[in-house]
Amino acid sequence: MEGNKKGICILGSTGSIGTQTLDVIRANQDKFQVQVLVAGSNYELLYKQAVEFEPIAVVINSEEGYNKIHDPLFDKGIKVYQGKQAICDVVTFPSVDVVLTAMVGAAGLDPTIAAIKSKKVIALANKETLVVGGHLIAELLKQYPTPIIPVDSEHSAIFQCLVGEGNNELEKVILTASGGPFRGKTRDELQGVTLKQALKHPNWSMGAKITIDSATMMNKGLELIEAKWLFSCPSEKLEVIVHPQSIIHSLVQFTDGSMKAQMGLPDMKLPIQYALAYPNRISNDFPRFNFMDYPQLNFEQPDLNTFKNLQLAYDAIEASNGMACVLNAANEVTVDAFLKEKIGFLEIGDSNEEIMGQFAGAKANNFDDLFALDQEVRMATSQFIKTKV
Ligand SMILES: NC(=O)C1=CN([C@@H]2O[C@H](COP(=O)(O)OP(=O)(O)OC[C@H]3O[C@@H](n4cnc5c(N)ncnc54)[C@H](OP(=O)(O)O)[C@@H]3O)[C@@H](O)[C@H]2O)C=CC1
Ligand SMILES: CC(=O)[C@@H](O)[C@H](O)COP(=O)(O)O
Ligand SMILES: [Mn+2]
Questions:
Q1: 104 and 234, same structural domain?
Q2: Which stretch of DSSP H or E encloses residue 111?
Q3: What is the CATH number of the domain that holds 260?
């Protein structure tokens, strides 16, 4: 947008990342101006956000939400739209400079494609976008070059470690994992774990889907695939190390053996602010890390047998170009079923494995194939789950 302020569109403004993004913007109103807010169904919060931040438009996915907020916001001069196509349209508004993608799941892919085609800077929180369509997004970016600034804490850490390194070759990219609430547990011990236990992440307060992904370590699997595409990093250079304190957010190692890490307290506002302000840094009053509060930082190997989703992600990276889409779609359905208490915790990974087997060799050479594959896998996974309950 004109002037010194960056115009921001937030996809998923009512969620964990979305609300923290608005916290960052609230504290930096001389630098950022909200142009567009997009939400799924939480119309009450979206309404409040719109009244406070005065965007030019909001989009809500649900029809009920649209009917509730259209007239009162229209009266305040704020346009209100509904539905998937509207989300893809608003990201292209000329006054939008940065699109922060914080919708959950593969639903974030389509608007991100529209934003890339419109050459917007992408502040990427929605990791599923690159998991599902990384190979096609990489091609799209050749045609429509635009910066993708990671928001995911590990990828923000890696990105920050790479600033100033030019073409210096990487030997390894090391993603840290908290290990989640069930770190160190055996498969037997995981048999009867509850939804409440799985939703209790040791270090981060996040949306329900990613919190379950952290508990199954699918989150780290998705992040491996995300890292592959963000940093053009082959799978043999990608490693995961369990670091229960989530203080070191990730590391890189160069071919001279030197390692760089980015560290700090677990607080998503920092990577969000970094992505919005990039290439600048903004001073803030976020709580600071104190070494004396953490006299020990620990590291462990991940247990790929118990947390099989992480192994499945490694497998998907090596398989055909549709397999990451298969894994993601299956996982979205199984996690949703677990959140609705229709299946047990271990059935998430077991079902994902079964579905990957059913779709062995799946390919997606263009976006139409990809969306069709995504739908097909969702149906197959729902069917499979029905046979189990
Ligand atoms: N939370 C975190 O700390 C981190 C999150 N991420 C990633 O960021 C993304 C968002 O995570 P998080 O904020 O935790 O998730 P939440 O569940 O808290 O929020 C999801 C947001 O997406 C919106 N939404 C969902 N479906 C649709 C749809 N079809 N159309 C429009 N909006 C939709 C929701 O709207 P509504 O609530 O109104 O229905 C909500 O605003 C995920 O991809 C996650 O993996 C990455 C790193 C850290
Ligand atoms: C905050 C963030 O980036 C999450 O993706 C976090 O990393 C989840 O923690 P796990 O390491 O437990 O997956
Ligand atoms: Mn992360």
A1: no
A2: helix 109-117
A3: 1.10.1740.10
Kindly give the distance from the C-alpha atom of residue 290 to the centroid of ligand 1, in angstroms, as a whole number. Answer: 30
Reading phi first (left if > 0) and then psi (alpha if -120 to 50, else beta), residue 361 is in left
Q: What is the CA radius of gyration of the chain?
A: 20
Domain that holds residue 252: 155-266+290-388
User: Tell me: the pLDDT tens digits for 78-113?
Assistant: 999 999 999 999 999 999 999 999 999 999 999 999
Instruction: Judge if the beta carbon of residue 253 lies within 6 A of ligand 2.
Output: no
Strand partners, 175: 240, 250
The structure's pTM equals 0.98
240 half-sphere exposure, CB direction, 13 A CA radius: 26
Q: Strands, E, within the chain: which ranges?
A: 6-11, 32-39, 57-60, 79-82, 98-101, 121-124, 148-150, 170-177, 238-242, 248-254, 259-263
Residues in contact with ligand 1 (CB, 6 Å cut-off) = 12-18, 38-42, 61, 102-104, 107, 125-128, 152, 204, 206-207, 209-210, 268
Q: Which ligand is nearest to the CA of 22?
A: 1
